[in-house]
Amino acid sequence: MGMTLPRTFGPYVLLHRLASGGMAEVYVAKAKGLGGFEKLIAIKVIHPRYFEDDNFVRLLVEEAKITVLLNHTNIGQIFDLGCVDETYYIAMEYIDGVDGYRILRRSAEKQVKLGEDVCAFIAAEMCAGLHYAHQQRQADGTTLGIVHRDVSPQNILVTRSGEVKVVDFGIAKSSMRARQTDAGIIKGKYYYMSPEQAWAEPIDSRTDIYSTGVVLYELLTGAMLYKEEPVLTLLDKVRKAEIPPPTSRRPELSPELVRIIMRAVAKKPEDRFNSAREMGEALTRFLHTHSPTFTRAKIADVLASLCPEAKALHGELMELSHTHSVQEAMAAELEAELVPMKKDEFVFEESTSIILDRSAYQKKTDLPATRADDQLEVAEPKIASVNRFDPTAPQRPSRRPPPPGPEAPFVPPAPPGAWDLVSNPDAPPSHDPDKRWDDDGTVKDDSPPEMAELANTKVASVRPGLATTDAGTRTHTRGNALPWILVGVLLVALVILYTLKS
Question: Which label site among 146, 220, 230, 285 has the fewest CB atoms less than 10 Å from its CB?
Fold first, then answer.
């Protein structure tokens, strides 16, 4: 795709280009999720030169639709089908291992012959996956008629733990396909085609059995069945299916294993095994007879000795994934520092000390700015102790004289503010400009009252009360005129009159 790696591709991060085929490229990618979830997967995308070819897009989509129905341990799984920037892709299971073609090439380079048990086990696992695909049915019970049509060493993956996976159902035949292959069109690799497939005749699951026999043949002999020749010459040999026994290249092979291979690669479909399951059972019996202690661990050991680069590649991918994760985390932290938080994203805890805005605070009050968790000392108003109001003291009810009526005696007008004190004992005294008042609320007047006024004045016995001024200070009020104060004033006035007369 001509891109710089690693890079983001939709919901994935492409880390490494794993392979490039005739119509598609495969990348190792990283899937990301919540809470730091990460998983290595394989991303298969259409080759750049086929981006705008609807036929190749259709093949990719149909491959995903077919493979997603196949949930088997010997078949590579499909996770997702999508499109990013007009590029269709398939998210598949990442298989940590190598394909059969690399195993063949490494064994030839190192001149190492694979054991019969190893080859028989790989072929038996291939048969298990293919039989599952062949027998897959629709919801109504009718068979899907799936035929792989491209069984070859390149589409057989062996993991470093010894598992075998059949992959790439891109050209698989199925009743689900919206468009079937036209008559006379050959699909598949010529080297591994059955004769009927090379003749473009109707095929069934037995063509995959033939291809599996050819793969087993090459694994045992360490070389390809057909050499690289012109297409027409190669196609003619495939159609004739004149295959010599594998003992012609490796004489020490077990006769029983040779019979299984030769039956699988028979020219006529009716001479082959009836199903992939039947061929797998024959290989399993051979394996139990000649190597009863065989385990997957032997596959892992062989793979580690032949293809050590598989382990190195996996380590590089893990390191690259980790490095990219660290870079992403650092970039996210930097972005979080640069992007301002929104108002509704601020969260204050009870233990958080909030710094007040000093300038704004000083505009509202003359008090110095301080921290919210510091104690703020505010001076209380200075009020004389004698004038302090006691909120716990019971309120004393006032006695207001009855209003004047027809039978009520005449009451002379009270001085200014007198009725305010009667109606509201808590009201402040009304100061007469001609009189002076003491702090205790009594009249300080040196002029003697007139006798007529004193004679006609009826003094009401009223208990003193308390009042609160508008300024908020609390003082003693005159309340109602105290009888004893008036009596004293009257006696003083009488003494003064008596003195003046004498």
Answer: 230
